[in-house]
Specification:
The chain has a single domain, classed as Glycosyltransferase, CATH 1.50.10. Helices cover 46% and strands 9% of the residues. The protein contains 19 helices and 18 strands. The protein has helices spanning 7-26, 29-54, 68-71, 123-133, 147-166, 188-200, 203-215, 227-245, 248-261, 294-297, 301-311, 315-329, 361-373, 379-395, 427-437, 442-460, 497-509, 513-529, 556-569, and strands spanning 107-108, 118-119, 172-174, 179-181, 224-226, 275-277, 283-284, 291-293, 340-342, 397-399, 406-408, 410-412, 416-418, 420-422, 470-473, 483-484, 581-583, 589-591. The longest helix is centred in the N-terminal third of the chain and has 26 residues, at 29-54. 47% of the residues are buried. It binds 2-acetamido-2-deoxy-beta-D-glucopyranose (3 copies). Residues 68, 449, 453, 511, 513 line the site of one 2-acetamido-2-deoxy-beta-D-glucopyranose. Keywords: Calcium, Disulfide bond, Glycosidase, Hydrolase, Membrane, Metal-binding, Transmembrane, Transmembrane helix.
């Protein structure tokens, strides 16, 4: 075999090249321009074809709505059993005394009020009393029992891997840059994820997190935190983990953070400030407003009531429930509330937007859930809830064109209708069906069914199978598509609300369609938000599979809520009983108490 290229060959080649170049230059300028454009177009088309192939299994015809029959391919339940090994239960373990009721503050013991006896109380005393009083069994996690639950547990482990490696003990993982973000500086993701791990039966991971709580968690920090977020994520997460495990460590920590949040209630009206310094107890309104958000002041009651009920100290529940009682007396529009409230006057800011989305959403959720938590005999809670849902149906519910999707819009300045719906509103189906279970009218169930379908369409009608943060709905005849996504609203933050509602819908109806919808959405997250090295990221654009543009953030609620609801949705035995627990706004289960 010979291999030789002669000098003359090379010369010949370079001559050809040169003459081609000359030919090219001789072409008219315009023609050259056109050829370059054509080449670029060809290249882009190739990329497009490639991307279309990649998304083929999920791709839905954009102009047409997804028919539920097209995608209901999975049949549940599947008889595939795979339990985690049931090794020994988590043992309650007492830690050294942590003094929690203020520094050496003299206060009454809860059970000797009449004698006015004062004594220094530590969380350990409280915990001792409680543990002596009742014997509640820890929650028994079955572990994943089918391939769907297993896939969710794998997703959790993948998210946890990133958090553990790059953000351990910090608030949030930034998975793309392999770093972290601190909001409050209290290990938010770790605390939010505790009960998820426990419910999933991830014992090893749970133990490691418990060690961190026992040895590293420190609430005595000079840091301003948001009262509401800290209540639902941290206080709620610690309390629910305490109830599930009966491990007193979590109760001690819950009492500690609960006490540090209490100064917020010291306002003229009792309506709490939005922010508090964990160390000094200094409180203030948000930097951008003098008012507090209505949703924030009305979404703390489940947690503070539970803290009172487990400790026997009534002040938490009294302070928090005072806010609900006060809101009850304020004038509303058909039971609907505005977004802001003044902490001095205790009055609503008039002419602010009426919405079921950000800044008002969970007011409605906690009306119903407080009624359930207290054994369903505080009648005005139920009445306010029913009036509000009537108000929603009358003022906010509309149908889009051409496919009649039912959605919940907003009243700008309390008057002008806007066909805009936050993804946050998708919690409403879950709340409605929960209410229906406890005797609300069938119209509530109907609205829940229609709305969850719309929320599903918000996912199914994008090329990524992920919902935008905000959708606008078409009310005019001429447009072809029901859902309009604006560029500013096209991001996805890994939010839980639709999955949450799918779980509630499935829990009460046992309609398998909801599980197959959940599975489709789960795959959207897997495909477009998973970061190889660990973690999942929020993305900027759900419309373009090739350019989702990661935002490099994994919020604590992805582990605390989204993955927990996926896991529960795919559970065949419905292990978390809604007759026993009421779930707070951050997916943390708290016990239902009987009426008193
Ligand atoms: C509380 O009161 C009870 C009787 O009401 C009494 O037996 C008990 O010793 C008191 N506890 C304390 C700490 O004083
Ligand atoms: C299940 O839910 C889907 C979607 O709402 C609905 O179309 C279907 O009729 C339901 N199936 C049953 C058996 O109720
Ligand atoms: C709730 O029920 C209990 C007894 O079942 C009763 O004593 C109490 O007064 C009731 N509370 C209200 C607000 O109706």
């Amino acid at each position: 075999m010979s291999f030789s290229v002669s000098i003359s060959d090379i010369q010949q080649m370079s001559i050809n090249k040169r003459s081609m170049w000359r030919e090219w230059n001789r072409l008219p300028r315009f023609l050259r321009f056109v050829i370059i454009i054509l080449l670029v177009v060809c290249f882009l088309s190739l990329i497009y074809v490639y991307s279309a192939f990649r998304e083929l299994p999920l791709k839905m015809k954009k102009s047409k709505l997804v028919q539920q029959n097209d995608i209901t391919k999975i049949t549940f339940p599947i008889s595939f059993t795979e339990s985690l090994k049931k090794d020994q239960q988590v043992k309650p373990q007492n830690n050294e005394q942590i003094e929690v009721f203020g520094k050496g503050q003299q206060i009454e013991t809860p059970h000797n009020k009449s004698k006015k006896e004062v004594k220094k109380v530590t969380s350990k005393d409280v915990v001792k009393q409680i543990l002596g009083q009742k014997e509640e069994k820890p929650f028994e996690a079955a572990g994943p029992t089918n391939p769907y639950q297993k896939a969710v547990v794998d997703a959790f482990k993948h998210a946890w891997k990133g958090y553990r490696e790059y953000a351990w003990g910090q608030d949030h993982l930034k998975p793309v840059s392999k770093s972290f973000h601190n909001w409050f500086g209290v290990g938010l993701t770790l605390i939010d994820a505790l009960d998820t791990m426990y419910v999933m039966g991830l014992k090893k991971e749970f133990q490691e997190a418990r060690e961190w709580i026992a040895n590293k968690l420190n609430f005595n920090i000079n840091k301003d935190v948001n009262f509401f977020e800290t209540t639902i994520r941290v206080l709620g997460g610690l309390l629910s983990t305490y109830h599930l495990t009966q491990d007193s460590l979590f109760l001690e920590k819950a009492i500690d953070i609960g006490n540090r949040l209490m100064p917020c209630f010291k306002t003229q009206s009792g309506v709490p400030y939005s922010d508090v310094n964990l160390q000094s107890g200094t409180v203030h309104p948000p930097s951008w407003s003098i008012d507090s958000s209505v949703s924030e002041v009305s979404t703390i009651q489940l947690e503070f009531r539970d803290l009172s009920r487990v400790t026997g100290r009534t002040e938490y529940e009294e302070a928090a429930f005072h806010v609900s009682k006060h809101l009850h007396t304020l004038p509303k529009k058909d039971g609907l509330v505005p977004m802001f409230i003044n902490t001095d006057t205790g009055k609503f800011r008039t002419r602010s937007t009426i919405t079921l989305g950000a800044r008002a959403d969970t007011y409605y959720e906690y009306l119903l859930k407080q009624w359930i938590q207290t054994g369903r005999n505080i009648t005005w809670l139920k009445e306010d809830y029913m009036e509000a849902i009537e108000g929603v149906m009358k003022n906010l519910v509309r149908k889009s064109k051409p496919n009649q999707l039912v959605f919940v819009g907003e009243l700008l300045n309390g008057k002008k209708y806007s066909p805009k719906m936050d993804h946050l509103v998708c919690f409403l189906s879950g709340t409605l069906v929960l209410g229906y279970h406890y005797g609300m009218p069938i119209s509530h169930l109907r609205l829940a069914e229609q709305l969850i379908n719309t929320c599903y369409q918000m996912y199914a009608n994008t090329a990524t199978f992920l919902s935008p943060e905000i959708a606008h709905f078409n009310l005019k005849n001429e447009k072809s598509s029901d859902i309009i996504i604006k560029s500013n609203d096209a991001h996805n933050l890994l939010r839980p609300e639709t999955v949450e509602s799918l779980w509630y819908m499935y829990y009460f109806t046992r309609n398998e369609t909801y599980r197959s919808w959940g599975w489709n959405i789960f795959q959207g997250f897997e495909r477009y938000t998973k970061v190889k090295t660990g973690g999942y990221t929020t993305i900027n654009d759900v419309r373009h599979p090739l350019f989702v543009n990661p935002r490099d953030m994994m919020e604590s609620f992805f582990l605390g809520e989204t993955l927990k609801y996926f896991y529960l949705l795919f559970s065949d035995q419905q292990e978390l009983s809604l007759d026993k627990y009421v779930i707070n706004s951050e997916a943390h289960p708290l016990p239902i108490y009987s009426a008193r």
